[in-house]
Structure prediction request, 372 residues.
Amino acid sequence: MRKIILSIIGVVLICLAFIFSKNLIANKNKPKPVKEKVVKTVFIETVKNGPIKIIIPANGSLVAKRRVELFAEVQGVFKPSGVLFKPGQTYSRGQALIRIDANEYYASVQSAKSNLYNDIAAVMPDLRLDFPDVYPKWQNYLNNYDLDKTTPKLPKMTSDKENYFITGRGIVSSYYNVKNLEQRLSKYNITAPFSGILTEALVTEGSLIRSGQKLGEFIDPSIYEMEVALSKDYASLLKVGETVSLSNLDKTEAYTGKVTRVNGSINADTQTITAFIEVKNSNLKEGIYLEANLNAEEVADAIEVDRSLLLEGQEIFIVKDSLLDIMPVKPVYFSETKVVLKDIPNGTVILKKPVPGAYAGMLVKPFKSKTK
Prediction:
């Protein structure tokens, strides 16, 4: 019985071995699968060189081009007037901003003017006798002398004798003393140098004003300037008179400005150069933050592409016979997202968007949009 069982097991093992060997022979002759070549689809564009405007982005806040800080040069009490000295108050050119009580000083000025009149009147008899030819003009001067008006200029002296005589009597020194007092008297009234608006008021009517005290600030709201700091690399590109496009941070308002001044020196600490942009618009206010795009210059025979397409060795990928290749280029200007390139022949096919893992010799095919 045992021999029969062993014989059956042996026959089964021989059969299994035969089947296994047959499968091995069949698999050995089966051809291996061929890997398909991966062809990436890429976005391309054909180079067409032309003029490219270099636009330099900048930003800054607006400051009134004409502004005056008001300071007192005399002391006295701020006299009330018909217009309140408050921020936001508008004034016309020549209108009084501040009137300081000058009654006491005015009296001293009138006294000095009276003394000058008396000094001239005292020498009139001598002039009639010794200088009859100049007497009429001095008499005419006295006739037109008015204590309530600004002291007129002394008559012109035509000879040395007349000059010595008048000067020796102290008339010339008295005249200039009066003019000095009148000049200081005018400082008790501060008038608007131009039509504008008061932006800061540090005193109120009735308060005592001291000499040297700051009273406020006055600006012309019709014209503003924006100071921008640009890299020194753009120093040779900036031109006075260039038009500048301006916008607010939300891009909801657009304005047009003009480069009026460019600083002649470069900041040693920041290595930047300062440019000033003038802008006029009734909607603008001092302190508004704006963004500017300055047209620096125009580069001929160039193209503008994304900075991500430029390789480290100043090269870009081109498509040639469905393969990627590398071409050296000459960058002439970098912005935050773009770069301006030269030395690329017209008709060259370049990538429009970067391809991950791209290398020279890579097989690609251009993307074709489906048209209905």
